[in-house]
Design a protein that fits this description.
The structure is a single chain. The chain is of the alpha+beta class. It has a domain at 30-104: Immunoglobulin-like. Helix content is 28%, strand content 37%. The chain contains two helices and seven strands. The strands form two sheets. Strands 3-2-5-6 form a four-stranded antiparallel beta sheet, with no helix packed on it. The protein has a three-stranded mixed beta sheet with strand order 4-1-7, with no helix packed on it. It starts with a helix and ends with a helix.
């Protein structure tokens, strides 16, 4: 009976340790996210300057997009409208555990500017 209780405690402790290690691995992500908005029907292409990472997104009706678990680094973002016109290329930086926001041309991210100071 005592041996069964000890075995149960060992199994419980092992399970708890494995679960905590699993959570720690997820918390130590080496990438970040990219988010933005565009018009329905637009195509957004995101290309890593140094990594070669590339994603092309066809924007749906709500206009919002997000790419998760993107390697850190510098990215070029190109938006092609459904009429064929192209916005100026935007540069963004993805940092560990953060979300880089692609802004509409001519806009600035006041939240990011305030948090960087």
């Amino acid at each position: 009976m005592i041996a069964m209780r000890r075995n149960a405690k060992v199994v419980f402790a092992s399970t708890l340790l494995a679960a905590s290690l699993h959570m720690a691995v997820h918390a130590q992500s080496s990438g970040g996210n990219i988010t933005g908005e565009a018009s329905s029907g637009d195509t957004v292409t995101i290309t890593g300057v140094d990594t070669g990472f590339k994603r092309e997104l066809k924007i749906e009706k709500d206009g919002k997009y997000q790419i998760r678990r993107v390697p850190t680094g510098e990215y070029q973002v190109v938006r092609v409208h459904k009429d064929g016109t192209i916005d100026p290329v935007q540069s963004i930086t993805v940092r560990v555990g953060s979300t880089a926001r692609v802004m509409e041309p001519g806009q600035t991210d006041t939240k990011a500017a305030a948090s960087d100071s």
